[in-house]
Amino acid sequence: MILQHRSHPLGLLATPNAHDALSEIHALPNPPLVPLQDDEIHVRRCRLAGDAIDGHFGCFRTSDLDHILHLTHGAPALIGHNRYAIAVARFFGGSVETHQNHRYIVPNFYWPKAHSGAEDFRVLLDSGIITEASIAFTFQKPTCSVCGHDIRDCEHEPGTMYGQQLCHYWYDGVDRVLEGSFVYRGSEPGTGILSEMRSSRRGLKHKRMTMRLDGKVYEVLPM
């Protein structure tokens, strides 16, 4: 099992009606202890993840997006993947939609107006200060798009052209969405930082790294 983060522009969409969202929120796993009213919550939607190749040259399969959206239902929303802080919002429902020739999961998320930081969070979202989102998930195998083998063991390098084909890897066997985070800047191809990360990945390509999270041991994919 492998732990991975994936970031891209947030893509806030039209605000859903809070009243219509209440039935889904109250049906969440571990629902609110106190029934909510529509004037007590903020609700937004965002493109959280899609089938475009990301800055690490990883990619979700289009056929897996419905499953990933299902796994996102009820997941916490954090700031900057900080799992030591309380979640700021929670994902629920949503749909899979097309945007710029790619398919994306578009979950809803809500947060209570009564929270001390609720209005600050709303202002940062709606004014475009927080503009990107990142999903943390676990999956079973990074499958090479060229040969179909585990990308950590085959001869192909992510981001390299082989003939007319760009090598990337598929996130196969996605089995858990740990959380989604709102971030100020996610991974983008072609930056200096990513160039350094790509060089490091080549050195770690045939190695396995592990980390412990919530009492479980995960492999960590070199980025």
Describe the structure.
With 223 residues, this protein is of the alpha+beta class. The protein has one domain. Helices cover 17% and strands 36% of the residues. It contains four helices and 15 strands. Strands 1, 2, 3, 5, 6, 7, 8, 13, 14 and 15 form a ten-stranded mixed sheet that branches. The chain has a three-stranded mixed sheet with strand order 4-12-9, with no helix packed on it. Strands 10-11 form a two-stranded antiparallel ribbon. The longest helix is centred in the C-terminal third of the chain and has 13 residues. About 8% of the residues have low confidence.
Short recap of the structure:
By secondary structure, the protein is an alpha+beta fold. The protein has helices at 18-26, 65-72, 118-126, 192-204, and strands at 2-9, 41-45, 49-50, 58-59, 76-79, 89-99, 102-112, 132-139, 141-144, 161-162, 165-166, 169-172, 176-183, 209-213, 216-220.
Uncertain stretches: 187-204
- What portion of the residues fall into strands of 2 or more residues? 35-45%
Report the C-alpha radius of gyration, rounded: 18 Å
Summing up helix and strand content along with how strands pair, one would put the structural category as alpha+beta
Mean pLDDT level: 81
The end-to-end span amounts to 16 Å
- Fraction of helical residues: 10-25%
Report the major sheet: 10 strands, mixed
Number of domains: 1
Shape field: elongated
Please provide the count of β strands: 15
